[in-house]
Amino acid sequence: MKKSLKRGLTLLVVTLLLASMGSIPVMAQDHRDLSGLLVEGDYEYRDIDGGVSISKYLGSGGAVTIPTTLGGKPVLDIGVRAFEQNDSLTAVIIPTGVIRIYNSAFSACKNLTQVVLPDTLTSIAELAFTNCTSLTDITIPEGVTTIELGAFESCTNLTQVTLPTSLSSIGSDAFGNCQRLTDINLPDSLHIIHPMTFAYCTSLTGIILPDTLTDIEMYAFSGCTSLTAITIPESAIFIGKEAFSGCANLASIQFNAAFTTIEEAVQTIPATTTIIGYIPSTAKNYAAKYGNPFELLNPEGWNFYNYQTHIQNIGWQDYATDGELSGTEGRSLRLEGIKINSYHNNLGVEYATHIQNIGWQDYVANGELSGTTNQSLRLEAIKINLTGSDSAKYDIQYRVHVQNIGWMDWSKNGEVAGTTDLGYRLEAIEIKIVKITADLTAYNAALAAVNPTDYSAVSWADYQTIVAANSMTGDNLQTEVDAATAAIMAAQDDLILSPDYIIAHAQIDSGSFAVQTVGDNIISQATALISKAGFDATNYVVTFTRVDNGIAQIDANGLIASIGDGTAIVTFTLTPVDGSTAATTAEVVLALS
User: Rounded to whole angstroms, how far apart are CA atoms 447 and 492?
Assistant: First the structure.
C-alpha cells in the first residue's frame, strides 16, 4: 500500500513539474469523460477504427457545418441519435470523409430545412431523418448503396428526392408518409422495393420503375391516392399483398411480363383499376378473379390469337400462331378437329368445318372444338369469320394443305378453304389475322387539292374545322376514310377564293372594259368580268373609288350619269362576303363615249 501511494505521488510530482516547464501538454486538454467519450467544441465523440464517430451535438443549433476532424482524427460516422430532436437545428453540412449516418442521427429535427451529404457517404441507417418535417428536398450522393428502414419516413414536406445510380436497397417505409413527394425516379441498380417504402405518399403522381426491378413487396405503394398509372417492368417477378391498396385514383396498371406473380388479395390492386397485360397471363387471371377491367397489351405487336389441330395418330398438337403450320405435311395424316382462340377484347372468331360423313357443322367460337375426336373422321373444309366490334378492322386469312392437292390458295373472311365433294382430307392449316390498312389515296389527294393562299382567311378557317373533324389514318376503316374524303370535298365547295386571287385571274383592267356611255354601270361590268372568268361573283361586294379629276359623273352605285371629257380612272375594291380582308385592283382607265 505504501509502495503504491509512493508511486502515485511520484507520478503527480513529475507531471506537475513537466507541465510547469511547458515540455508536455496537460492531460486535461483531452476532455475525456468517465464514459470514455471525448469532447471538442460543440461535439461529443468517440474513437473508432481509422477515425472518430460523433456521439452527440452540444451546440446551439442554427446552420451547422460539421468539422472534418475532431481530436486530430477524421470524422467517419454520425452516430446514433447524435442530433436527435434538436429543434434549433436549421441546416447541416456533413463534410467529405463521413461514411455512415447511423440510426436516428437526425430524427425529429423538426426545423431542419437543408441537408448537404458528402460524396464519401455509403449508407443512411434506420430512421436517420425520420420526422424532419421541414425538410423539402434531399440529394443522395453517388456512392450510397443503402437507405435503411424509415430513413426519411414522415418527412411530410419533402417534395424532391434525387437518388444515385449506386443505390441497391431502399428499406421498408424509407419514404413512407412523405405526403408532398410528387415524383421520384428509381435507379437501374435497384432490385427490390421493400414493404411500405412509399406508403401514404399521398401526392405521388408518377413513378418510373427500373427495368432491373424484381420485387415489389407488400403495401409498397399503399395509400398513394394521387398515383394514376404505373407500369410494372418485364423484370418484375413478384407483387406483394396489397402493394397498391388504397390507391383510389390508380386508373391503370400495366404488366410488361406475362407471368409476374401477383399475391392474391382483393386490394392488391384496387377493383376500379384497369389492368393491362397479355393473354394468357397472371394479370389477366387476377382481373378475372377480382373483377378488374382488363385491356390487352399491344394487340398489334403481340399474337393475340392461336389455334391447334387434332391429328390422326397424334392427337392435339401444341398451339400455333401467326401463320405457323398446324398439322403435318407429307405424312398423309388427316386433321380431325380444330380449336381457334382470339384474346383481343373486341375481336372474336367463329369457324365451321365440313366433316366426312357429316357435312358442315354449325359455327363454334373462341376455343370450342369444331370437328370430332376419337371417331376417325377427316376434316374436308373450313370457314372462318371474325366477330366483335373490331372485326371490320381485320382480315382473317387461312389456307389448307389438302390430300392430292397440296397447299391451296389463301381464303379469307368466311370463304371455304378445302373441298366438299371430293372426299379429300385436310392435312394442315395456316391462319393469320391481319390489320386492314385503309387506302388513303383519294383522301390525301383531296387535301392536296387546295392551297390556303388562294382562299379567304375566314372560309379557310371554317374549312380547316371540317378537315380536323375528319382526320384519318390507315388505321381507320375504309368506309370512314371514304366518308371523310366526301365531307372534305364538300367543304371545299364552300371555300371563297381570296380577292387577290380573283383580281389576278379575272382581268379587271382597262382592256377588259367596253367603251362606256351614259346609263352603263361599271360595278355591274366588274362583277360580270368575275363571273366570266368562272368565279362566283356573289361571294364579293364590289365597290369603286374615283382616282382622277375628270368631270364625268358616276354615282356611288357605279351608274354613269354623264360622260364629260371622255375618260374616267377608277380602282375597284373586292370585299369577301365572309368579312375577310378586301383587295383593290390597279387603276382602270374607262373610255367614255
Answer: 9
| DSSP state, residue 585 | P
As a residue count, the chain comes to 593
Measured N-to-C along each axis, helices 522-532 and 499-506 cross at an angle, to the nearest 10 degrees, of 90
Which residues face 401 on adjacent strands? Answer: 407, 428
CB 101 within 8 A of CB 125: yes
Burial class (CB in 10 A: 0-12, 13-18, 19+), 225: middle
Note the pLDDT tens digit of each residue in 43-60.
999 999 999 999 999 999
Pairwise CA distance, residues 304 & 18, whole Å: 93
Buried b (16+ CB within 10 A) or exposed e, 54-92: bbbbeeebeebebbeebbeebbbbbbbbbbbebeebbeb
**Residue 277 and residue 280: Cα distance in Å, rounded?**
9
Domain ranges in the chain are: 1-28, 31-181, 305-435, 441-492, 499-591
SS3 445: helix
pLDDT at 35: 59
Q: Are strands 51-57 and 62-65 parallel, antiparallel or unpaired?
A: unpaired
Give the largest CA-CA distance in the chain: 155
Distance (Å, whole) CA 128 – CA 107: 6
Q: Which three cell numbers stand for residue 79?
A: 452516430
In this predicted structure, what is the pLDDT of residue 258?
84
Would you state the pLDDT for residue 5?
Answer: 34
Q: Which three cell numbers stand for residue 401?
A: 394443305
Separation CA 466–CA 443 (nearest Å)? 13
Rounded distance between C-alpha atoms, residue 140 and residue 138, angstroms: 6
Task: Give the right CATH number for 31-181 from 3.40.50.12780, 3.80.10.10, 3.30.428.10, 3.20.20.410.
Answer: 3.80.10.10
The three state secondary structure string of 360-421 is: ECCCEECCCCEECCCCCCCEEEEEEEEECCCHHHEEEEEEEEECCCEECCCEECCCCEECCC
- Would you say the C-alpha torsion 200, 245, 183, 212 has a positive or negative sign? positive
Classify the phi-psi angles of 460: left when phi > 0, otherwise alpha if psi is within -120 to 50, otherwise beta. alpha
pLDDT means per 10 residues in the chain (593 residues)? 36 35 36 71 96 97 97 97 97 97 98 98 97 97 97 97 95 97 92 96 93 95 96 95 96 92 90 89 91 79 82 95 94 97 87 97 95 96 95 94 97 97 96 92 96 95 97 92 97 96 94 92 96 95 94 93 88 96 95 89
